[in-house]
Amino acid sequence: MPKHAVELSRKDMKAPDAFMTAAGKAASWVSGKQKAIVGAVVAALLAVAVVIGGMSWLDSRKGAAGGLLYRTLDDADGQISSVPLPGVTVPLFPTADAQYRAVLARADELRKSYPSTEAARTAALASAAANLRLGAFDQAIADYESYLANATPKDSLAFVAIEGIARAKEAKGDTAGALSAFERLQTQSPARADRASLERSRILARTGKPDEARKLLQSFPQDFKESQLRPEADKQLAALGGAR
Question: Which candidate, 61, 18, 46, places its Cα nearest to that of 7?
Answer without folding.
Answer: 18
